[in-house]
Amino acid sequence: MSSHREAPEIAKDPVADSSDLYAFVSPDKPDTVTLIANYVPLQLPSGGPNFFEFGDDVRYEIHIDNDGDGHPDVTYRFEFTTEITNPNSFLYNTGPIDSLDSKNWNRRQFYSLTRVTDGREHRLAHKLPCPPCNVGPLSTPKYADLVRQATYTLSTGERVFAGQRADGFFVDLGAIFDLGTLRPFQQLHVAGKKIFKAEGEPVNATDRMNVHSLAVQVPLKQVRRRASRYGPADAASVLGVWTSASRRQVRVLGDRVAQDTSTGPFTQVSRLGNPLFNEVIVPMSKKDLWNSLPPSEDKRFAQFVERPELAALLPALYPDVFPNLDKLNKSKKARADLVAILLTGVPAGLIDGFTNATGDVQADMLRLNTAIPPTRRPDRFGVLGGDLAGFPNGRRVADDVVSIALRAIAGVTVPLVDKTFRPDAAAGAVTPGLSAADVTAPFLANFPYLGTPYDGFNNPPASS
After folding, report:
1. Run of H or E including 366
2. Model-level pTM?
3. How far apart are CA 344 and CA 300, in angstroms?
4. Which of 36, 262, 343, 459 has CB 3.0 to 4.6 Å from 362, enough for a Cys bridge?
């Protein structure tokens, strides 16, 4: 979660594993949209001497659909190369790294950025350097300075960064995957009531872990389709966003005199739109297939959105807590609310002043109505909390997407399409019990927004 190790095959390939995707109107630059795609999840900060990096053999892309057909109209493509400056050292660095061209830094990574619009490629930048991993106070003493050096404003208007960041996703993985336990309600769990006498304290399993982020801040005029106006009710204001990673179809392993080589066309091995979609909605047998397909093919998975397995599990795991949801499940009614949230966008008329519908094509995309301005005081529950600038209208870094998704699946959003349905009292309170306050590295107020990565020397913190 949100998409860390979410499918059997991509779990074996973390360099290509997309773990989180964010899309939001930039709070400090509201004429731009910020897109952040995270890869290489669950990084132990002290994991040297071969510290984490992007894959030179992976094509990373962030896609934007601005006409609702589930196909990209604008794509930002990142491709990486790695250089070793000292072939006789086993070390990542041989002294402090105080600049991106430091001679002490032995393994450096660069990338090119290409913008693809309607099939036409335009190289925006070539050989931009990434910052190093945050090794520790002796190796990377002024890490924030390195990040500033590695943040670029391009002549075409985009701002871009590619490198290590703190994982800002918060989730109690250990509890959730232990038979769906929610520690704040563990004493009500069908098995937990035999073990737990009271509620428990949640644990942020991804805290003090790092990821590698691709971040691009784009003027809205470069991603919206042309229209006479862009108001909150106008379809031209809505973008669909997803990220993907692709590899060459053929890889030939070298021998003692030849290097490994990759050839053939690129084939998609990972993608991510809405958080938790492949993780929680798609069944195990189809997860790898889902990762290989474009969003335009997601009608194949609509049945799992209409009748999600988790919605049936909640009443079974928490007896007598979700009676109304249980009755809804047994009625076999398709969950039109979840189809709207995850596959088509929320149409006008269901929520006052809000829509992010993209049309009839069922596609898992993170939909963002760019005409809805950033909120001065964001609510972590997004649209469910009355904050129309938050998830599922795009996704901000501090949005509590796990609680929002659980509450939607538990029935909170059913009244949007069925006024006769009354959600269970627990549906509006269900949560793993975490928030952005449980992320040790604070989020930034400006680009690239995710916090400074944890360094290997101080994680875990040394005992005093």
Report:
1. strand 366-369
2. 0.97
3. 14
4. 343
d(CA 91, CA 113): 29
Nearest to 75 by CA among 223, 235, 230: 223
Structure tokens belonging to residue 150: 């590695």
Q: In what order do the strands lie in the sheet with 210-219?
A: 18-25, 32-43, 210-219, 159-166, 152-153
Q: How far apart are CA 150 and CA 441, in angstroms?
A: 20
Specify whether the CB–CB gap between 453 and 133 falls below 8 A: yes
Residue whose token pair is 């005199």 = 257
DSSP label at residue 395: B
Nearest to 447 by CA among 160, 129, 205: 160
d(CA 19, CA 6): 8
Name the β-bridge partners of 202: none
Q: Which of 386, 384, 389, 391 is nearest to 407 (CA)?
A: 384
Q: Which amino acid is at 452?
A: T
Backbone angles phi, psi at 175, to 5 degrees: -80, -45
Q: What tens digit of pLDDT does each residue of 259-301 get?
A: 888 889 999 999 999 999 999 999 999 999 999 999 999 999 9
Whole-number Å distance between alpha carbons of 435 and 453: 19
> Residue 223 corresponds to which amino acid?
V
| Bridge partner list, 107 | 84
* Count of beta carbons in the 10 Å neighbourhood of residue 329: 20
Sign of CA dihedral 384, 387, 392, 393: positive
> Could you tell me the two tokens for 151?
């943040």
